[in-house]
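Quick board copy: two proteins, each given as sequence then tokens.
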Amino acid sequence: MHALVYTQPNEVCLQDRPYPEIADGEVIIKIEAAGICGSDMHAYHGHDPRRKPGLVLGHEFAGSIVKSLDASLAEGDRVTGNPSIVCGTCDNCVQGRSHLCTQRGMVGMTRPGAFAEFMSIPAASLIKLPADLASDAAALTEPAATALHAINLAQRVMHRPLQEGRVLLIGGGAIGMLGALLLKHYGVDQLAVVELNAMRRQSIADHVGCEVIDTTRQTLAESSYDLVLDCVGAAATRKVAFSAVKAGGVILHVGLQDWASEIDMRKLTLGEITLMGTFTYTLADLRATVKALHRGVFGDLAWVEKRSLADGPAAFSDLHQGKTAAAKVLLKPE
């Protein structure tokens, strides 16, 4: 089968790979669409020691089952799912927080991923799709669930309803775009997105209809936002987040570009600011997101770019060089 393989920093190549092996309780999926994630780009740049050359990347997927060794799923079932492979028995798994499982593996990291014609995965990780939900939309379940999980966390700690506040999203990538669309659906009308790529700024303006800010040309108002979501997670964006949040506000740290930086602990303390980390999603979040995509909560998704799997090397290069307006590129095996 054809698969897109990470071969060395800044290089992915289309290669012939063996058909996936399958164990009891697993299925093999014919991949119909798979999204390029920011973490895939992180690996592509050689910045993720967990993802080593020779790996098939990709963990945002939708497809149909071609072989099943689990009674809950049959050949022909259309699915998306959780790329994390969890133990199911640790405290976090038992409590419904399997995304925090300390023994988790992941397709596209600890086992071959979705940038291929076929992929194996445990059946327990999968969610059946509504018959009329297109695979291209279903492949957005994973990043959309990340946005949904983060925003739902923020609502638990905000002092006033989300709809009353001023909200700032830093980063107009897929999670930023999907988060902005979800916030608009939730009724947030005081929404701004910081994005430095001019093509993405235009895409956000066209498809979300909110204020878009280029901080290299515009001054961001200080201490003026009730909720700030940092969807980049760089040292520079953390600094922006702390500058922008008002006293009593909430900063939600979503992205993981840089692992460490100095933060304004004096403002955090004197302003009683809540700083929260958020990591991926629960299985309940994924199921809720499939329903939301089916209802059209995220709009027509016209901003998503679709390319063939064979065009994967060019897609990675274009994303690396900022040559595409698309916050999400889907790769589709032919």
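And the next:
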Amino acid sequence: MNWMNILYPVLGLGGLGLLFGGCLGFAGKIFRVEEDPKEAEILSTLPGANCGGCGYPGCAGCAAAIAKGDAPVNACPVGGAPVAEKIAAILGVSAEEGEAVTAFVHCSGTCEKANQSYDYCGISDCEMAVQLAGKGPKSCSFGCLGMGSCVKACPFGAIHIENGIAKVDSSLCRACGKCVAVCPKHLITLVPVSKKVRVGCSSLKSGKEVLSVCKAGCIGCGICEKTCPFDAIHVVDHLAVIDYTKCKNCGLCANKCPKGVLTGKKPLPKKEPAPETDTPA
């Protein structure tokens, strides 16, 4: 075999490789995007959870948005105020203080209080169970299924199943919103940490219908609405709804709720015994 028949193709391929390599190198210089050094510094400050709670694709996306001014310095809910202060120092701006929030499950239908329509024997996953009749085995179609999809989604171990319903440990919650997104019944919301009065129900059924399936549901009686001195709670579609911009944490509505649906009860002051009076002999 003539060795020239092998050499020419090899040289040709090598030449093409050098040509394309040179073109790519030239294009890289022409179209190179200068990286903001502050972006890398911000990224190193972020906690690295990559939870998406900020609304951006991971911590890198969040850092880029903050560096460009498209997101505030407190965009990371996981890092909270300490991280926001560090980022503010990097950018030379003041940190924006925001209300700390935590996830809360709007359901009080524990195993003892909520009825079950049938036994579920499938995969322990809320997304699977909600596809069945009645949106799952729990008689209340609005109730927590307690199968732990939110538990699996939480990267901080802040949520667990307790007596058939999901419970959030606010001390561990970083308000990333993953549990909010994964709940197929939309029972989980982010509420202000400082506000202790919360509605432990999501049912939009009438009081009679609620009582037929759950002993711990909101019956829409309106006592909370009448009790609140700040106009902070109203019954909408048979369900109590709190306006946290008005709520003062007084707990009066929770104390008066006949079903115990509202959290944040305040202990009533003890009545002092009436002073004894001397009676004439």
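Board note added afterward: The CA atoms of residues 220 and 238 lie 4 Å apart.
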